[in-house]
Amino acid sequence: MQLYHHPYSLDSQKVRMALEEKGIDYTSYHVNPLTGKNMSVDFFRMNPSAKLPVFQNGAHVIYRAIDIIQYLDRLAVHLSGEIPAVNTEVHQWMQKVDAWNPKMFTLTHIPVKYRAFVSKFIRRVLIARMAEAPDLASMYHVKLREAYETEDKVKDPEIMKQSEEELSKLLDDVEAQLSKTKYLAGDEFSPADSMFIPILARITLLDLDEEYISCRPKILEYYNLVKHRPSYKIAIGKYFNGWKKYRSLFKTSFFLCVRTLLRRP
Asked: The GST N-terminal domain covers which part of the protein (predicted)?
């Protein structure tokens, strides 16, 4: 089994936490979207959405995080031979968490100059790949159109407001739930928690803890609790603590700076 992912991809973190919680062995492949690796011809042939993560088990390839996590649940049941009771609350929370799209929220909290640079770079990569693989040109063109549409959306204050409101509503619902249970869908850690915790990590990465986490005491208590889990430390903590956080960010920043220097006359 192989997982194509990146440490700062929120959906990748969801899947990696689920894999670690289930104790499923897999081969890890880092694919950095900020350097266009997710749009290389080989990767694009496997996954025309160019989104991360991608999970592959033999000929079976799955793209969406929630689909991968549900597949892992079924796989773990098959390997164990047990038949657990159906937990509709876990499924409902997974759907609720998955309904919030973090893309616009993240982009609008990144400095404009960096966001514009990466956007322009990605568009150039797409145009180059269209020439490199003519048989994939129509699919690359779809991604190019999406890139332009994203640029327009990120400038719309109403879209940003809607994203923030949806996040606040989700966090308020979680706060209410955690006043009754230890974890998101009960007193046991579940795939719903694997889906939700990376959202808190994304808020932390954007330095927005005070606005979204610290003001919600039950979520803050829960967040501090899950940080001690081995799955969190492996999938998220090792990239967010101290110099390791900045090492991962530096690798990407260095690449982008080099590209800039090479293009200067």
From this structure: 1-80
